[in-house]
């Protein structure tokens, strides 16, 4: 048979396939999300997120040590706060005896070489369960910014490397940049949740933190899943306000948005492979419907192929283990 072009020639051996591989994903590009609770000796599995735990600081330090041994150098830390510490102004987020701030300090003094990223939003500390300040049933954008700034300065003082504003208030990147610069934290970076969608796929995360909204939803601040040009507008704003890294969230359902921001910005693009995306794969694997290792690697490589430079994923540890083999 006369067939001039035979693409299969470029797939004929493992060596050739590896040579011609267009996308590679290094463990150095992964950020591992971890949940922390106050207390001692706690390793409490999140029911809707098999293999993920709420850790107390003592055990979290051991967990991070074992992840460092696998090559993971980037971590994003989320606090699960007891209900009685929550109020409508999220005052616990910047209080002196806050266990999350204390943990940031301890983790960074124990492992100064790693990158530690925070979450900046009111929801883990808010009695309303919203990312912004609630007044008369509405999210008050401008009243939220000073609260986020107090939270940010407290995290910067504790030694965080990168703050991660996930609240989607207008103007917050510039406001937080200015607040940090004024206090002398010019080297503390901002990874902005630039295109954060109002997604059903955050459900397991809200179980982990008990942070679901008490009333209403997040649609007046998080983006409509139907939109993508709006993501470019958000990216332009965050860039002009001083963001160092832009993020798209969720990841696998928004690969087109990742690609769009990669093409429209010179900043590094992060993608958050969120709790629901990971949990649905885990659930299918536990039922025997999918092969966990293969499906997980394919999910991560698809996010990198779309243009993500950095991936926040609950699979980071398992991926790092696989790469060691
Ligand atoms: C809170 C925040 C959320 C996530 C990260 N930061 C939840 C939300 O906006 O309701 C979700 C992460 C995940 O689902 O893995 N500001």
TrEMBL record:
For this UniProt record, the keywords arranged alphabetically read as follows: Heme biosynthesis, Lyase, Porphyrin biosynthesis
A single GO molecular function term of this UniProt record = porphobilinogen synthase activity
* InterPro entries the record matches: ALAD (IPR001731), ALAD_AS (IPR030656), Aldolase_TIM (IPR013785)
Q: Which reaction does it catalyse?
A: 2 5-aminolevulinate = porphobilinogen + 2 H2O + H(+)
Pathway this chain belongs to: Porphyrin-containing compound metabolism; protoporphyrin-IX biosynthesis; coproporphyrinogen-III from 5-aminolevulinate: step 1/4
Q: PANTHER family from the xrefs?
A: DELTA-AMINOLEVULINIC ACID DEHYDRATASE (PTHR11458:SF0)
Indicate what this protein is called per its UniProt record: Delta-aminolevulinic acid dehydratase
Query: Which organism encodes this protein?
Result: Marinifilum caeruleilacunae
Which taxonomic lineage is given here?
A: Bacteria, Pseudomonadati, Bacteroidota, Bacteroidia, Marinilabiliales
């Amino acid at each position: 048979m006369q067939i001039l072009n035979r693409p299969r020639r470029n797939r004929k051996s493992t060596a050739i396939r590896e040579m011609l591989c267009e996308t590679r994903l290094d463990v150095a590009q992964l950020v591992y999300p971890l949940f922390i609770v106050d207390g001692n000796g706690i390793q409490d599995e999140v029911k809707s997120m098999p293999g993920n735990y709420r850790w107390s600081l003592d055990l979290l330090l051991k967990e991070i040590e074992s992840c460092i041994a696998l090559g993971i150098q980037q971590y994003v830390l989320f606090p699960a706060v007891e209900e009685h510490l929550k109020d409508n102004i999220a005052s616990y987020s910047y209080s002196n005896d806050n266990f999350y701030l204390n943990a940031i300090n301890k983790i960074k003094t124990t492992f100064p070489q790693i990158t530690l990223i925070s979450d900046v939003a009111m929801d883990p500390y808010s009695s309303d369960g919203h990312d912004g300040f609630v007044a008369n049933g509405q999210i008050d954008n401008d009243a939220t910014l000073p609260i986020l700034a107090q939270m940010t300065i407290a995290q910067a003082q504790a030694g965080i490397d990168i703050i991660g504003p996930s609240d989607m208030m207008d103007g917050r990147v510039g406001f937080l940049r200015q607040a940090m610069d004024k206090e002398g934290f010019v080297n503390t970076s901002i990874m902005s949740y630039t295109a954060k969608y109002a997604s059903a796929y955050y459900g397991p995360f809200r179980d982990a933190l008990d942070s679901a909204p008490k009333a209403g939803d997040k649609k007046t601040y998080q983006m409509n899943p139907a939109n993508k040009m709006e993501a470019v507008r958000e990216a332009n704003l965050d860039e002009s306000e001083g963001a160092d890294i832009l993020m798209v969230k969720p990841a696998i359902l928004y690969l087109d948005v990742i690609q769009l921001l990669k093409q429209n910005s010179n900043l590094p693009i992060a993608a958050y492979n969120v709790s629901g995306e990971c949990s649905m794969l885990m659930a299918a694997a536990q039922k025997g419907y999918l092969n966990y290792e293969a499906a997980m690697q394919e999910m991560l490589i698809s996010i990198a192929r779309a243009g993500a430079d950095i991936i926040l994923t609950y699979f980071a540890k398992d991926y790092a283990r696989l790469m060691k083999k």
